[in-house]
Structure to design on (344 residues):
C-alpha cells in the first residue's frame, strides 16, 4: 500500500528527548517500510526514518511550539498536496488541521487517538465521527467514546532490541513520569517508605500545577535516601528500567496507554499499578506485576513489593513481545489499513 504518515511538526521522529507520539510513529514508519509498503513520513527534516521523508521545516522547534497553529497549518498544507494521486491511505497522528483537511481529500483517513477524551476533543471528533476511521490504543479508550467509527484497537509498540532483559535487579524501585498529581508521584513515595525501599524518580516538571505539586507536596514527603532526576535520555531511562526491582505506576486518571509499563516489562521489571485506563490490559496481575487500588496504593503496593519473587522476568518480557512489540503494532496497523482501503 501507499501510506502517508502525518506526524505533528513539533518534535523530530524519533524525538531526541521528550515525546511519546513520535516514538510510536518512528517505529511504525520503519516497520511498514521494512514490510514492503511504500511509506512517506511527513515530519521535520531532522527526523530519521526508513520511509521516504518529506518536510517543510528543516528542524523541529521543540516542546515550546506544541500546538502552534501556524506551524500546524503550514505542515498540513505541505503534506496533503496531491494526496489523492499519491496515497491509498492517510494515517494522521494530529487531531487538528491535519485531520480536518485529510477527510476532505477523498483518501481514506485513519486517525490514531493518542490522547484522552476531553469534552473539547469529543466535540471536535463528533464532526468527523463517520468520515475518518479511528484507531484506539486500548480497549478502555474505545469504551470511553463508542460513537466514533473504529477500524480497530492497536496497542502502542516498542522496539524490543532497545530493551534488553535483565533478570538481576538492584535494590531500588523506580517512578517515571510527570509531576502532575494524577500521575501519583506522592503515592509512589509513600509506598516506597512503607516498604523500606529506596525510590529513584525521573520526573518532568513543566507546568505550574506540576511545580506547585513539587514544592508543596513532594519535597516535604521525600525521604533522605530518595534520588530525584529531571528529564532523562532514552539510554538513561532504559538503564534505570533494567536495574530497578519494580516500577511504580500509581496513576489516578484514565490513561489511554502507558508506554512506561511495557518498557519496564520488556526489561523483565514488574509493574505495580492502579486499575485505571489501560492498566488491566497491559499488566497481568500476579504474573507481570500487581494491580492495586488507588485509595490504598501505598499499603497495598508495599505489601506487593515484598512478593516480587513471585514474578518471572521472562514472563514480563514475553507478554510485551507478544502484545506490545513493534512487530505486533505493525501487524495491527496493516490489518487496519487493509480494511479501510477495501471498504473505501
Amino acid at each position: 500500500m501507499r501510506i502517508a504518515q502525518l506526524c505533528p511538526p513539533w518534535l523530530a521522529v524519533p524525538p531526541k528527548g521528550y515525546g511519546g507520539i513520535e516514538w510510536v510513529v518512528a517505529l511504525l514508519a520503519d516497520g511498514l517500510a521494512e514490510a514492503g509498503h511504500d511509506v512517506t513520513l511527513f515530519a521535520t527534516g531532522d527526523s530519521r526514518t526508513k520511509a521516504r521523508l518529506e518536510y517543510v521545516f528543516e528542524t523541529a522547534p521543540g516542546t515550546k511550539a506544541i500546538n502552534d497553529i501556524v506551524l500546524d497549518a503550514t505542515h498540513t498544507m505541505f503534506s496533503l498536496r496531491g494526496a489523492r494521486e499519491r496515497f491509498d491511505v492517510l494515517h494522521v497522528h494530529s487531531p487538528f488541521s491535519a485531520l480536518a483537511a485529510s477527510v476532505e481529500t477523498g483518501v481514506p483517513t485513519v486517525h490514531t487517538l493518542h490522547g484522552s477524551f476531553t469534552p473539547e476533543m469529543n466535540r471536535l471528533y463528533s464532526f468527523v465521527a463517520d468520515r475518518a476511521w479511528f484507531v484506539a490504543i486500548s480497549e478502555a479508550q474505545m469504551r470511553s467514546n463508542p460513537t466514533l467509527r473504529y477500524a480497530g484497537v492497536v496497542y502502542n509498540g516498542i522496539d524490543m532490541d532497545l530493551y534488553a532483559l535483565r533478570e538481576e535487579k538492584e535494590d531500588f524501585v523506580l517512578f517515571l513520569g510527570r509531576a502532575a498529581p494524577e500521575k501519583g508521584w506522592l503515592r509512589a513515595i509513600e509506598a516506597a517508605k512503607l516498604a523500606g525501599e529506596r525510590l529513584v524518580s525521573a520526573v518532568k516538571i513543566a507546568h505550574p500545577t506540576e511545580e506547585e505539586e513539587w514544592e508543596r507536596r513532594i519535597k516535604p514527603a521525600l525521604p533522605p535516601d530518595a534520588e530525584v532526576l529531571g528529564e532523562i535520555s532514552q539510554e538513561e531511562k532504559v538503564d534505570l528500567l533494567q536495574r530497578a526491582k519494580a516500577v511504580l505506576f500509581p496513576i489516578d486518571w484514565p490513561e489511554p496507554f502507558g508506554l512506561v509499563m511495557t518498557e519496564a516489562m520488556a526489561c523483565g521489571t514488574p509493574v505495580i499499578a492502579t486499575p485505571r485506563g489501560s492498566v488491566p490490559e497491559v499488566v497481568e496481575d500476579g504474573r507481570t506485576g500487581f494491580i492495586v487500588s488507588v485509595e490504598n496504593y501505598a499499603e497495598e503496593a508495599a505489601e506487593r513489593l515484598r512478593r516480587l519473587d513471585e514474578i518471572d522476568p521472562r514472563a514480563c518480557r514475553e507478554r510485551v513481545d507478544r502484545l506490545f512489540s513493534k512487530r505486533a503494532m505493525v501487524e495491527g496497523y496493516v490489518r487496519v489499513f487493509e480494511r479501510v482501503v477495501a471498504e473505501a
